[in-house]
Design goal:
homodimer; alpha/beta; Rossmann fold; 3 domains; 6-stranded parallel β-sheet; 6-stranded mixed β-sheet; DNA-binding; LacI family transcriptional regulator (chains A, B); DNA-binding (chains A, B)
Chain lengths: 343, 343
DNA sequence: TTGTAAGCGTTATCAG
DNA sequence: CTGATAACGCTTACAA
């Protein structure tokens, strides 16, 4: 009976004069189907406004039409950008985005992820750094037979399972830029231990100095945690130094904004007294004054690509354009950098 | 057979020597169950690590274990805060959060929401402003029989379906504060037309002036759209005025940050030459220099409460503490406000 | 190329 | 209080 509630596959089958299975084949775009049969069924579907029940399909197919986003990230803007990118790729599909923040550090993290994946039977899942850097999440997905993509600051996995940026390279360039302007005492606010991105960015920083034959005292490197507060503390430590650094590279925008904050609080002027470069190119970088020179991290593109990788089986062969896996970051020149002014 | 794959309700039933239905009753915390039977079943569940299959439950129950978040919001930080609050409430439940951005303005918006709700059969859904202000989404949820909560800047619905803040009141207080410091030419950067929050905040602004018997030229009100860019344009318009306003209230932090940006770009000093008050108390307010006086909008608490309202049936009567519906905002005093200095 | 029968794992009905 | 049986709506064998 169709009169009651929403039409089901049975209604379609009956009205089209075919079997349920044939309707099912139409829904699932089975290739072995007579064109006229398909047309007939599609006509009925359109006419009565039939929409397949996702719960029933999920039960039979053993997977949901959901793409998961697993993260444990201190940066809100980054997570939002990732969501935006993924949703862009998923637009006009039947897939939905399910968000799952987790507690790295928790001893049950891996079990939590496993429970989440097993329970929801996701179609695919995307991991953000730093969780994505944990090799065990990849193992877990392979064991569970679930599609996954990891985002990272360096290549961690095969192209199918990875979207990466070249953090070390672009930071090296950024620091070289500082050097070319005449800066010699350059401070680094490093990211948290255990983050691959933090390591890569630091590596780029050190490579640039090494290539220029410059050896800096260890004191010019301060530890941060990618948060504003830790950035503030690190910047204060650096600015207390004597002689003071003439430029600071902060491993993300949040800490770069904190550096600007710390400098202005002391009555310093940026970029006259201090040049600052950040990393991420999140909104705050261009919103603060002076607008901040920073590395543009193409997160939205990476996230979109990641989602497309996850959906590649679904879209079928016709759309089998290989999604890129490496997304070059670029330095965005704004107003927080100038040649050093000795005073 | 349990050897293959994950244990099912049948395995539990067999091992416990009861029927499937009895196990089902245990899972669903049915009150009419013999204590010893329950204990026996629970023991088996724990022993073999049985986890109910959500897809099958969804099919039988006609609803998923998902809470939806529907929004069309220009402010990333706000959406993240909402997610954080909701997820906090959902922690340690079997519910997951599914995020659905929509395109207000699209002629198919309501149909899109309907399709989403019907397809996913959510357990409950939360609407953010400005979509939440549309009475038709509430009608839709009632028609579909789906739990919903709306967030807004004024009371739009019954307590069960609403979390609201008192924007007009707190803005009135904020502007009175400006007046008490001696400001007389106060500019307003208004929010977008059609947003209830924009209207409420403007109302508070106008009430404060009216109560003080001050009549301001229409030119001191500039239109914004809650984005940085529109805030910048509006601030420039205001700062081009002669005489210039000595203080500006911006209807959200993003536009307040833009106001600061515009002022500093002109070489003005804040708060000496211009006092600024924002609204939201998002991260940027405290991160920029000088730290910005703003209205703290308790979004995280509101979102947590909203999710709890959605889950109230699930938690059962024992936890039936009535969640609040009104969340007072408060003015946070920072460094962007000072008495006017005539120069 | 299409159809038939048997699940997928759970809950509702209604009897005991 | 508990259990047998029929849904829930779709897909996967396996035939035809």
């Amino acid at each position: 009976m169709q009169s009651q509630g929403k039409p089901t596959i049975n209604d379609v089958a009956r009205l089209a004069g075919v079997s349920k299975k044939t309707v099912s084949r139409v829904i699932n775009r089975s290739p072995l189907l007579n064109g006229s049969t398909r047309a007939k069924v599609e006509a009925v579907i359109a006419e009565i406004g039939y929409v397949p029940n996702v719960q029933a399909r999920a039960l039979a197919l053993r997977h949901n039409f959901l793409i998961g986003l697993v993260h444990d990230n201190p940066n809100a803007q980054m997570v939002m950008n990732v969501q935006a990118g993924m949703l862009e790729a998923m637009r006009d599909t039947e897939f939905e985005l399910i968000v799952r923040p987790i507690d790295r550090g928790s001893s049950t993290m891996l079990q939590d992820i496993r429970a989440f994946l097993e329970r929801q039977r996701l179609y695919g899942v995307m991991f953000l750094p730093p969780v994505s850097e944990n090799e065990m999440v990849a193992d877990l997905c392979r064991e569970l037979g679930i599609r996954y993509v990891r985002m990272g600051s360096a290549t961690l996995d095969s192209a199918k399972h990875m979207v990466a940026s070249n953090d070390a390279d672009v930071v090296r360039d950024a620091v070289k830029h500082l050097l070319s302007l005449g800066h010699r005492r350059i401070g680094l606010i490093a990211g948290p231990h255990g983050f691959r991105s933090a390591r890569e960015r630091r590596k780029g920083f050190e490579e640039a100095l090494a290539e220029a034959g410059i050896k800096l005292p260890r004191s010019l490197i301060a530890d941060g945690n990618y948060t504003f507060e830790t950035g503030l503390a690190a910047a204060d430590r650096l600015l207390d130094l004597s002689p003071r650094p003439t430029a600071i590279f902060a491993s993300n925008d949040e800490m770069a904004a904190a550096t600007l904050h710390a400098a202005m609080r002391r009555g310093m002027t940026v970029p006259e007294n201090l040049s600052i470069i950040g990393f991420d190119d999140t909104a705050i970088a261009s919103h603060i004054w002076p607008p901040m020179t920073t590395v543009h991290w193409p997160i939205i593109s990476m996230a979109r690509s990641a989602a497309l990788k996850l959906l590649t089986d679904f879209f079928g062969d016709d759309q089998a354009v290989e999604e890129p896996s490496l997304f070059p970051s670029t330095l965005i020149h704004r107003a927080s950098v100038a040649p050093p002014r000795e005073d």
